[in-house]
């Protein structure tokens, strides 16, 4: 189920509604699977498409890959409201910064903006974000900013409640020096495995490849996902 | 008590001063025989569908206060701007005030900028406000409208999350309504077909959910204008009043009549000119 603690959350006055069933009273959460992989020349990012309120799927076709700038994206996991708000704020800050510099922004800058916001408001926010993109200085980069506000650059990173099920797959199948197509295939498989096992992940698999040329988006529908067992 | 100004201009936004008073009152009332009234909620079914020519919104008309139906003909589809309407589920007062505030802000915006407001703008304003209040405002809204960029349908949750989808249902009857929508929705439907689909979705919410009932309102928004059909369909279970409860004039007989003129003296007269040009 959605992996978050409600200890630090305020009591919601709204959820004491007589007519909303118990299992649909929680806050909207992207209990999710997100991932990002670097390759030579860019990054590939992927996410599932399920947003839940408790046990009810509020949106089964969510787009969790949010553009922050032309060549920088973020993958959102955690509370839908919190991540949307933080992503909006960082989009504004980064856009302003880019106009000031008259230059496309660096992925590291975007990741640090996320980190500053997530760390400062760590008690109030519930947001686990993966920032990925391409810039001229360092090429394709993936930075992960989990809950609490840490930042670390990784060649491949997974996040969200479904990530627990695919660490093994990721560790054994990732090889440095993969091509874009290989990365897309790797992501599709990883997402399919996570969506199969995690109740809070599902729907369609959304993928995107970001390179110097620009953006290429793909959607793999539920029935087209790779199958790993006949059980 | 002498006050320098009788009417204090309130600080902008919401004022939660009465929350602590209510909590204290609750404590007093629980001990006694009376209970504090439960806030009026629109335990509701609302739905929206994007079709070829515009957006169709639908809602039931029951507002409940605990287990009692407080309002049988509640208007849940709120006006935002000439090209946008918003259905609200959750606490009735919160949805009313939130949509009112949004409508006022958008009117001011369109006057100062000279532009017609876009649906994304309304959604962003709602999201900003609800996120700021961290879920304390219990409003789940479905905002639909037509603007120069196309036909849009958004939902805004009480914590400030938004979803942009072609068809939606919210409220306590949302599961029933969503079943109908999932089964029969097709992209780019004709207007009449979309109206029937929304009607059927709300009807299924009314039949399967205790918090929804009475009549069905439909609001059709197209580029040509808005058709707010209230009610689109009346409930088959309407009551017929048993007797006339109005009394005709003369029912109470007048026994005596005494007229006492008030003697008033003009003490002071001031004339203030107003510039109404």
TrEMBL record, chain A:
Top-level lineage group: Eukaryota
Broad class of where this protein is predominantly found: cytoplasm
KW Hydrolase (keyword) present: yes
Gene Ontology CC: cytoplasm; nucleus; proteasome core complex
Molecular function GO terms recorded: threonine-type endopeptidase activity
Active site (catalytic residues): 32
Keyword set, alphabetical order: Cytoplasm, Hydrolase, Immunity, Nucleus, Protease, Proteasome, Threonine protease, Zymogen
PROSITE patterns attached to this UniProt entry: PROTEASOME_BETA_1 (PS00854), PROTEASOME_BETA_2 (PS51476)
Biological process per Gene Ontology, one example term: proteolysis involved in protein catabolic process
Cell compartment(s), UniProt: Cytoplasm; Nucleus
Record carries keyword Endoplasmic reticulum: no
One matching Pfam family: Proteasome
Reactions that this protein is recorded to catalyse: Cleavage of peptide bonds with very broad specificity
Purpose: Component of the proteasome, a multicatalytic proteinase complex which is characterized by its ability to cleave peptides with Arg, Phe, Tyr, Leu, and Glu adjacent to the leaving group at neutral or slightly basic pH. The proteasome has an ATP-dependent proteolytic activity. The proteasome is a multicatalytic proteinase complex which is characterized by its ability to cleave peptides with Arg, Phe, Tyr, Leu, and Glu adjacent to the leaving group at neutral or slightly basic pH. The proteasome has an ATP-dependent proteolytic activity. This subunit is involved in antigen processing to generate class I binding peptides.
Subunit composition and interactions: Component of the proteasome complex. The 26S proteasome consists of a 20S proteasome core and two 19S regulatory subunits. The 20S proteasome core is composed of 28 subunits that are arranged in four stacked rings, resulting in a barrel-shaped structure. The two end rings are each formed by seven alpha subunits, and the two central rings are each formed by seven beta subunits. The catalytic chamber with the active sites is on the inside of the barrel. Component of the immunoproteasome, where it displaces the equivalent housekeeping subunit PSMB6.
Family recorded in the similarity comment: Belongs to the peptidase T1B family.
Name of this chain's protein: Proteasome subunit beta
Species of origin: Coregonus suidteri
Lineage per the UniProt record: Eukaryota, Metazoa, Chordata, Craniata, Vertebrata
UniProtKB/TrEMBL annotation, chain B:
Primary residence: cytoplasm
Pfam families: Pr_beta_C, Proteasome
Sequence ranges assigned to domain Proteasome beta subunit C-terminal in this UniProt record: 240-271
Active site (record annotation): 44
Reaction equations catalysed: Cleavage of peptide bonds with very broad specificity
Record keywords, A-Z: Cytoplasm, Hydrolase, Nucleus, Protease, Proteasome, Threonine protease
Keyword Cytoplasm (UniProt): yes
Any coiled-coil regions, as ranges: none
GO MF annotation, one: threonine-type endopeptidase activity
Biological process, per Gene Ontology: proteolysis involved in protein catabolic process
GO cellular component, one term: nucleus
Localisation per UniProt entry: Cytoplasm; Nucleus
Family: Belongs to the peptidase T1B family.
Subunit annotation: Component of the proteasome complex.
Physiological role: Component of the proteasome, a multicatalytic proteinase complex which is characterized by its ability to cleave peptides with Arg, Phe, Tyr, Leu, and Glu adjacent to the leaving group at neutral or slightly basic pH. The proteasome has an ATP-dependent proteolytic activity. The proteasome is a multicatalytic proteinase complex which is characterized by its ability to cleave peptides with Arg, Phe, Tyr, Leu, and Glu adjacent to the leaving group at neutral or slightly basic pH. The proteasome has an ATP-dependent proteolytic activity. This subunit is involved in antigen processing to generate class I binding peptides.
Protein name: Proteasome subunit beta
Organism: Coregonus suidteri
Lineage of the organism: Eukaryota, Metazoa, Chordata, Craniata, Vertebrata
